[in-house]
Amino acid sequence: MDNYQINHLRELEAESIFVIREVTAQFENPVMLFSGGKDSIVMFHLARKAFWPARVPFPLMHIDTGHNFQETLEYRDKLMEATGTKCIVKYVQDTIDKGRVVEEKGYNASRNKLQTVTLLDGIEDMKFDAAMGGGRRDEEKARAKERFFSHRDEFGQWDPKNQRPELWNLFNGKKNMGEHFRVFPISNWTEMDVWQYIYMEEIELPSLYYTHKRKVFERDGVILAAAPFMTLRNSEEVKEMNVRCRTIGDITCTGLTLSEANTIEDIIQEVAASRVTERGGRADDKRSEAAMEDRKKEGYF
Amino acid sequence: MSGKESGYLDMELLRFTTAGSVDDGKSTLIGRLLFDSKAIFEDQMEAIERASMRSGGEQVNLALLTDGLRAEREQGITIDVAYRYFATPKRKFIIADTPGHIQYTRNMVTGASTANVAIILVDARHGVLEQTRRHAYIASLLQIPHIIVCVNKMDLVDYSEDVFNTIVKDFESVASNLSVLDVRFVPISALEGDNVVTRSENTDWYDGPTLLYLLENIHIGSDINRHDFRLPVQYVIRPQSKEFPDFRGYAGRIAGGVLKKGDTVTVHPSGFSSVVKGINIFNKELDIAYAPQSVCIELEDDIDISRGDMIIKEGNGKPLCIEQDFDVMLCWFNDNNMVPRGKYTLKHTTAEVRCMIKEVKYKVDINALEKNSDNQELGMNDIARVSLRTTKPLFFDAYNTNRNTGSIILIDEGTNETVAAGMIL
């Protein structure tokens, strides 16, 4: 590479930092959504970079389905304490208790879809006017058409056919009262970029991403973690296996990968050799061809 | 660069846009690049195979990869700009895939605004058409530094060298009337894979590179302005903490040029000068910074600086323009027509002002590539030279000097929609 040229990760970093700073400058009351997954961890790392030596000037918000991996919660609390950041937690259980949503039943019951209501309620209650999320355009085909600054109407809905054109570095965050924006600072990152960046910046991750022994069972070719709230079919049996998470969501819909990867280098090797997308193991995307598009229109992450 | 940033992490980022209509095989070409560079995963491939069978196709339809929304799959069209990603050991690529039919100009302009390279597809059977001229014009208007003309479907013209040469000649004559900087031509078949990733034996008369080789090797180091330092101030960082009681940093993304610690800079609009005390990215101190890095700089003197101000380095480069009246090439993006003498919010770098449309000097007939001064109406997808007046002076460069400091968008004050994009002349 020439002088005065930066590599692809540094260029993506510069773009994301620009977007995060732009949110802080254009909105009154922004929030950053935090799931404890690698994408939101990287996004939060970028936010710390954007404002150093000042603290991150907005809170984080975690939508807690109650069906979490314990490791994620421990990691979250440790990180918030170490960085002096405020993290608001909103519980899907509260939304259920208030009768705002009805819990799904059956073997594939998941709170994944219910989260959307908790999320939108959280945004409305706290009067957030911009919510930053770790969504990436390479994750799923409906996300490929998402803007950095994505306008949501007063119902929190996304209208994919009527998006604002986004040119150069000029982001239009103008809105009416009651509307809000979803902003995706790492839109242009791929799964591989995220892993390479974690390696380059030596970012600490929840232990779930590395190989560990866990009680699991198989369903429709996907390995799922055994947990008290998971209902097993008669044919399904719990086994102990060496697995790791390639993506972290709710326990009920996070597929695990058989893996011995112990270090970030191992993981990068594994991702490079992998022939299935990371969302290939996500039961929430398999519900229909347009599952993600439908959830996004309603106001999903 | 050292340690972890050398080796396989040391890749450049190249952004390109693809122009072509539905039948030019644009989606097939993108599918081919993704497929041959192994950016398509098994689960995606299975989904495409299933969908191809359902629509009765014989071959796997790689075009289905790029149709993301339900309405698009149902109607077999692309509605919006979609972004795709792939990487080779040399470069990471971001494709802005723009649809060929409805709202064409709006989408191509959007995709082109950040591109290093435009791929223009020409059907070998049809040659240079009106729409090819339109694509070339937009690429030149948006000053995309490199154009690669892919003459596609060579398999359907028996890989004829004459057909290829005629198209090259015709395109060059179109380009001679435009300000295009760098044009290359490649004969390809996206369907068969000729000269996309691997050299084709069917075109033994062609001794140029394949498309992928060009994408991997085209020199993009000079695409950014390296001469005139510009930092639009985005955010002022003041921790007021025990550890950093007096820290005052000016954060932003460098829009052009190079800055070194100790350099003298001037701040607009105040006009005051100061010396750069420090440059940092996070807790890392830098001696030198350049576009397109996002940095935070400290100055020796306490000057009143806020968002929307511009920090520059005076030197032997081009002087910064400070004007309230200027002309732009404006692309209209909205169903509501432009209001003559109407007032709009204008965004330029990190600054925001109000502006008034003073005059439409001429409209560009994008098909004939002619100027038309009779018609002052500006509607969806129209392009025109327009004079603007802003409420406050803007600090800018001409678009052809610096794309970052020479571009604007207009926002409707009633609907909040982005209604136009402009390149400052």
Number of beta-strand segments of chain A: 10
Q: Which chain pair shows the most residues in contact?
A: A-B, 65 and 81 residues
Helix count of chain B, per DSSP? 7
CATH class wording of the largest domain in chain A: Alpha Beta
> What would you call the shape of chain B?
globular
How would you describe what is shown here?
The complex is a heterodimer of chains A (301) and B (425). Chain A is α/β, with parallel strands linked by helices and 301 residues long. Chain A is 31% helix and 16% strand. Chain A folds into two domains: 8-193 and 289-298, HUPs (Rossmann fold, 3-Layer(aba) Sandwich), CATH 3.40.50.620; 207-285, no CATH class. Chain A has eight helices and ten strands. The mean pLDDT of chain A is 87. Chain B has 425 residues and is of the alpha+beta class. Chain B has seven helices and 23 strands. In chain B, strand 12 and strand 13 form a beta hairpin. The interface between A and B is large, with 65 and 81 residues.
Helix/strand layout:
The complex is a heterodimer of chains A (301) and B (425).
Chain A: H1 8-26, E1 30-33, H2 38-51, E2 60-64, H3 70-83, E3 87-91, H4 92-97, H5 115-125, E4 130-132, E5 149-152, E6 180-183, H6 191-201, E7 212-219, E8 222-225, E9 239-245, E10 256-258, H7 264-273, H8 291-298
Parallel strand pairs in A: 1-2, 1-4, 2-3, 4-6
Antiparallel strand pairs in A: 5-6, 7-8, 7-9, 9-10
Helix pairs in contact in A: 1-2, 6-7
Chain B: E1 12-19, H1 26-36, H2 42-54, H3 70-75, E2 82-87, E3 91-97, H4 104-112, E4 117-123, H5 130-141, E5 146-152, H6 161-175, E6 183-187, H7 211-217, E7 230-232, E8 235-237, E9 249-253, E10 258-260, E11 264-268, E12 273-281, E13 284-286, E14 288-290, E15 294-299, E16 310-312, E17 321-332, E18 343-348, E19 351-365, E20 370-372, E21 383-396, E22 407-411, E23 418-424
Parallel strand pairs in B: 1-3, 1-4, 4-5, 5-6
Antiparallel strand pairs in B: 2-3, 7-16, 8-9, 9-15, 10-14, 11-12, 11-16, 12-13, 12-15, 17-21, 17-23, 18-19, 18-22, 19-20, 19-21, 22-23
